[in-house]
UniProtKB/TrEMBL annotation:
UniProt superkingdom: Eukaryota
Originating organism: Fusarium pseudograminearum (strain CS3096) (Wheat and barley crown-rot fungus)
Taxonomic path: Eukaryota, Fungi, Dikarya, Ascomycota, Pezizomycotina
Alphabetized InterPro entries for the sequence: Kinase-like_dom_sf, Prot_kinase_dom
Residue intervals of the Protein kinase domain: 89-375
Molecular function via GO: ATP binding; protein kinase activity
Record's protein name: Protein kinase domain-containing protein
Length: 391
């Protein structure tokens, strides 16, 4: 038994040592800066000569060429939504047609403002184009086949409904939500597989930011785990784009006081009128909460007998609704769990990464205390500096 555990721990240590090389997409961000600032004349030619050929495809994925403005919107009769299978504890659905496997991820725009609607259409189209160019090089995101668009009317209000259609690689089967896996304690085969799941989620979030979007809904319900039939491990993919928007785009400054959503929100984003506009670092905080659950392999949210959401024993006394806790005390408790529970479960390196995510906006944080260090015109260097801190 000792030999088996030691082997598992050694594998996890090896995986953590590879974290930098597998998670590090800072060089992609640097290439993005180069593409933006050296895009003229001889300077661009010289830059292209210095960059490996492989970078051309990576740069083009984040900035598709004009010909990528293909027919993004699909024919509605091509996919019968009513035959799609529900995925437990996830808003996305699974659709199969012959040998084709698709994930259907829907979002709704209820705004009556023409400006708001046009911005949503623009963002949906842009995301679909960029993820269409995406070749799934291991960044935890599906390739987008296109978008279904339809107009509906609900309670005398016109609504725009979009469904992002994602292609599932043929070597991935049985999409299940991470929430379901955590609740049923269906543990991966080894600690190294747990680390890999955390890595893939971190890379997916970083790649979304590389594409100039914020996700705004990172939680276990927005993460799918699929079985890789060739390598026999669980692969993590990020979905749940119901609230995404262009980074730096229009924000309504609307938050949520619903505790399950609040659990994954930074304290300054809590409540119906949050203090701060949503920025990329708020996604990083949500990522930290998810990485904590992954490392512990324990859900912080449970479902009661009648289907109501209830907090787990780990956090129930720290919620504002408990009468004893507050949104800030909950955050501090999550940091404490990362410090005390994660090291003996999965190692100190993983625990440090989780704590870094949870405290990324803290004024007194040794790594991120000086906010001016992370400010630049396009936000790209913010990403580079942040990833450097995660090494």
């Amino acid at each position: 038994m000792y030999a088996f555990k030691k082997k598992s721990i050694d594998e996890s240590i090896s995986e953590l040592e590879k974290w930098q090389s597998t998670f590090d997409i800072s060089w992609l961000l640097i290439l993005k800066v180069a593409n933006q600032t050296l895009a003229t004349g001889d300077q661009m030619i010289a830059t292209q000569e210095r960059l490996p050929n492989v970078t051309e495809g990576l740069i083009s994925q984040s900035h598709p060429k004009p010909e990528a403005d293909r027919a993004v919107f699909l024919r509605p009769d091509g996919i019968d939504m009513s035959t799609a299978s529900l995925i437990t504890f996830c808003e996305a659905r699974h659709f199969t047609k012959g040998s084709e496997s698709l994930i259907l991820d829907s979002l709704t725009c209820s705004s009556t403002s023409k400006i708001s609607r046009s911005l949503v259409v623009k963002d949906v189209k842009s995301l679909a184009q960029k993820l269409y160019a995406h070749q799934d090089p291991g960044y935890g995101l599906f390739k987008c086949k296109g978008v279904l668009k339809r107009d509906t009317r609900d309670q005398n209000e016109d609504q725009l409904n979009f469904t992002l259609v994602f292609k599932v690689p043929r070597y991935l089967l049985e999409p299940r939500s991470m929430r379901k896996m955590l609740l049923r304690a269906e543990c991966p085969n080894s600690l190294s597989e747990v680390v890999r799941i955390g890595q893939e989620l971190a890379k997916a979030v970083s790649y979304i930011h590389l594409l100039d979007f914020v996700h705004k809904k990172i939680c276990p319900e927005s993460i799918l785990l699929l079985r890789h039939i060739e390598k026999d491990y669980l692969a993590a993919y990020l979905v749940g784009f119901q609230k995404f928007r262009k980074d730096g785009g229009m924000t309504s400054l609307l938050g949520s006081s619903d505790w399950p959503q609040m659990l994954y929100c930074h304290p300054k984003r809590y409540g119906q009128r949050p203090e701060d506009a949503y920025i990329m670092q708020h996604d990083i905080y949500s990522l930290g909460v998810c990485l904590l659950e992954i490392g512990l392999w324990e859900s912080l949210v449970r479902y009661g007998e009648s289907g109501q959401l209830v907090p787990s024993q780990l956090i129930k006394d720290y919620l504002p609704s408990s009468g004893m806790g507050s949104i800030e005390s909950l955050k501090q408790h999550l940091v404490m769990l990362a410090r005390t529970r994660l090291p003996r479960r999965i190692g100190s390196k993983y625990a440090e990464i989780v704590e870094t995510c949870l405290t990324c906006l803290d004024d007194g944080n040794a790594d991120f205390g000086d906010e001016s260090e992370f400010l630049d015109a396009d936000g790209v260097l913010v990403g580079v500096r942040y990833i450097e801190k995660l090494r």
